[in-house]
Amino acid sequence: MKLKFTKMHGAGNDFVVIDAINQQLDLGPEQWRRLADRRFGVGADQILIVERPATADSDFRYRIYNNDGSEVEQCGNGSRAFVRFVSDKGLTDQRSIRVETMSGIITPRLEDDGSVTVDMGAPILEPARVPFDAAGLEGVTEGRDTLWPLTVAVKGEEQTVLVSTVSMGNPHAVQVVADVDAAPVLETGPQIEHHPRFPRRVNAGFLQIVDRNHVKLRVYERGAGETLACGTGACAAVVAGIRRGLLDAPVQVQARGGKLTINWAGEGQPVYMSGPAETVFEGEIEI
């Protein structure tokens, strides 16, 4: 079948976006992997699917596939690309839309300057709901947060890292590092992603504090590897930093592919993420 698509990115986190409202779509994991392959397909960190909503009070349904073919609950940078796509394609004339995801409703809003702000909902902080198995572990209190020890191997030697566990509709383990550029992201990221304490795997965040309103961040994403930016990872990192007493909102997050601004008022409040969403090119592929 021939499939029309749009290639987009948000701060370097890149996507294949597919309109499943105006074309038939019946693909499986093998086809998702081929689409995302950077040599044999289009190339992307994630594939985003635009569908009709399942409920009357929503505007669209949003589905996300990682480049390994797995479907996941949430993608923050992708949500910004989503609202840009449906606006550019004339699928809506609203600046703010309600979008169904596997983890609940999000409300991205297209701003006058072309950026997109997304209400990502309130973070989930209880370990069991992240989900994270804390049984038998002794946590370390820092500020209002509890840090959990994980054992990883660095150059063949076991080390213990302390992580904050946060869900932004998908699970994150955030550790603070002195120098994000020197952090062993590619070595320990996969170990954390597949750590048995995380039954659904996890996104591994490496956070460097620049000052109380600026951070640098790298994220090894579940099912995608390290990406140039991770929107939910930025939200989770800022939530962890604020809870640990290290940051004050709003926080500018410098990822390798660009900047995001994260605002959070504290426990029980939604996290707001603002940043760019850009179209790279459009095409058609036979798959």
Automatic annotation (TrEMBL):
Sites marked Could be important to modulate the pK values of the two catalytic cysteine residues: 172, 221
Catalytic activity entry: (2S,6S)-2,6-diaminopimelate = meso-2,6-diaminopimelate
Active site annotation, chain numbering: 75, 75 (proton donor), 230 (proton acceptor)
Its EC number(s): 5.1.1.7
Coiled coil start-end: none
Pathway: Amino-acid biosynthesis; L-lysine biosynthesis via DAP pathway; DL-2,6-diaminopimelate from LL-2,6-diaminopimelate: step 1/1
Main location: cytoplasm
Binding residue positions for substrate: 13, 46, 66, 76-77, 170, 203, 221-222, 231-232
SUPFAM superfamilies attached to this UniProt entry: Diaminopimelate epimerase-like
Keyword line: Amino-acid biosynthesis, Cytoplasm, Isomerase, Lysine biosynthesis
Compartments where found: Cytoplasm
Pfam families tied to this protein: DAP_epimerase (PF01678)
GO MF term list: diaminopimelate epimerase activity
InterPro entries: DAP_epimerase_AS (IPR018510), DAP_epimerase_DapF (IPR001653)
Record function comment: Catalyzes the stereoinversion of LL-2,6-diaminopimelate (L,L-DAP) to meso-diaminopimelate (meso-DAP), a precursor of L-lysine and an essential component of the bacterial peptidoglycan.
Subunit structure: Homodimer.
Family per record: Belongs to the diaminopimelate epimerase family.
Name of protein: Diaminopimelate epimerase
The organism of origin for this protein: Telluria antibiotica
